[in-house]
């Protein structure tokens, strides 16, 4: 006996919210100016709002799969990483100070 996934559960809300955040990050990676990014975020929000009413679990799964495929298609080849996060330009830039003497020998 298989149970259908109900559309308005907390798990589905989290999945859709995660997809929304991924879409916003993808838009941020591919835009160079804030006004272009803002226009893109408005379009993304409108697309998510248009599918807000879906109550059929199979239709919901197909829309989520299509959204994931679209995100994979539009993924930026060189995404933005905050500088201090792993993968960022400043991550572990300053190497720790050596504890042993820098010049060997007894001065």
Automatic annotation (TrEMBL):
Gene Ontology biological-process entries: mitochondrial electron transport, NADH to ubiquinone
InterPro entries found in the cross-reference section: Complex1_LYR_dom, Complex1_LYR_NDUFB9_LYRM3, NDUFB9
Membrane protein topology class: Peripheral membrane protein
Recorded superkingdom: Eukaryota
A family per Pfam: Complex1_LYR
Keywords: Acetylation, Electron transport, Membrane, Mitochondrion, Mitochondrion inner membrane, Phosphoprotein, Respiratory chain, Transport
Domain Complex 1 LYR protein: 14-72
A GO CC term assigned to this protein in UniProt: mitochondrial inner membrane
Subcellular compartments: Mitochondrion inner membrane
PANTHER family: NADH DEHYDROGENASE [UBIQUINONE] 1 BETA SUBCOMPLEX SUBUNIT 9 (PTHR12868:SF0), NADH-UBIQUINONE OXIDOREDUCTASE B22 SUBUNIT (PTHR12868)
Subunit structure: Mammalian complex I is composed of 45 different subunits.
Cited function: Accessory subunit of the mitochondrial membrane respiratory chain NADH dehydrogenase (Complex I), that is believed to be not involved in catalysis. Complex I functions in the transfer of electrons from NADH to the respiratory chain. The immediate electron acceptor for the enzyme is believed to be ubiquinone.
Record family assignment: Belongs to the complex I LYR family.
The protein's name: NADH dehydrogenase [ubiquinone] 1 beta subcomplex subunit 9
Organism: Scheffersomyces stipitis (strain ATCC 58785 / CBS 6054 / NBRC 10063 / NRRL Y-11545)
């Amino acid at each position: 006996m298989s149970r259908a996934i109900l559309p308005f559960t907390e798990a589905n809300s989290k999945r859709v919210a995660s997809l929304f955040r991924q879409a916003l990050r993808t838009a941020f990676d591919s835009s160079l100016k804030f006004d272009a990014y803002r226009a893109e975020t408005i379009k993304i929000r409108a697309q998510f709002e248009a599918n807000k009413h879906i109550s059929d679990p199979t239709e919901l799964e197909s829309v989520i799969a299509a959204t994931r495929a679209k995100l994979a298609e539009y993924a930026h080849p060189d995404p933005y990483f905050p500088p201090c996060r792993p993968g960022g330009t400043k991550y572990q830039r300053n190497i720790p100070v050596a504890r042993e003497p820098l010049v060997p020998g007894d001065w």
